[in-house]
Amino acid sequence: MSAAAPIAARQVLRAGHGRAVADRVALDYDGRFLRRKVLTTEAGLRVLVDLDQTMSLDDGDALLTADGRVIAITAAAEALTELRGDDLVRLAWHIGNRHTPCEIDGDVLRIRRDKVMADMLSRLGAALTDVTAPFRPEGGAYGVGRTHGHSHGEAEGGPHQHSHSHSHDNSAKSHDHGH
């Protein structure tokens, strides 16, 4: 006996949509960046997400299925590191300078667990605690998209022409992201 075909979902409802939720699917940070993928909800419903373009879904967003059901997106728990310290602005600068997604929550910063980043941040004076929790990092510089990479594709407001040369670690060395 074969499994039922997944039901299509081609529309995203942003958080605060106000519609009744029929089911939920928990996705980690990477899993919330998708265009076409089959997901299985908490109740076992198979949903084929088939969007026009790759999108970054946030905790609280939802998918609208072909038959009108609303499937809520929740941020799944994942391995994170919490940072505290006397100079969070400086720590946040170093995280951003490495194009690392970061959640900002009052006097705590959270990043996905990474030994190299943890070593660097502890050397900069951060107090680190490994936790398992949902990850809800800040969006892109213009309020949409992801902070990783420098793709600047159409999902992030369209292509544009300018250099992204900049230096890392306050050194005279710089690099160009090639676009």
Structure in words:
The protein is mainly beta and 179 residues long. The chain has two domains: 7-75, HSP40/DNAj peptide-binding domain; 78-134, UreE, C-terminal domain (Alpha-Beta Plaits), CATH 3.30.70. Helix content is 11%, strand content 39%. The protein has two helices and twelve strands. The protein has helices at residues 88-97, 115-123, and strands at 7-13, 23-27, 33-40, 46-56, 62-65, 70-75, 77-84, 103-105, 108-112, 127-134, 166-167, 174-175. Strands 2-6-5-1-4-3 form a six-stranded mixed β-sheet, with no helix packed on it. Strands 8-9-7-10 form a four-stranded antiparallel β-sheet. Strands 11-12 form a two-stranded antiparallel sheet. A hairpin with a 6-residue loop joins strand 11 and strand 12.
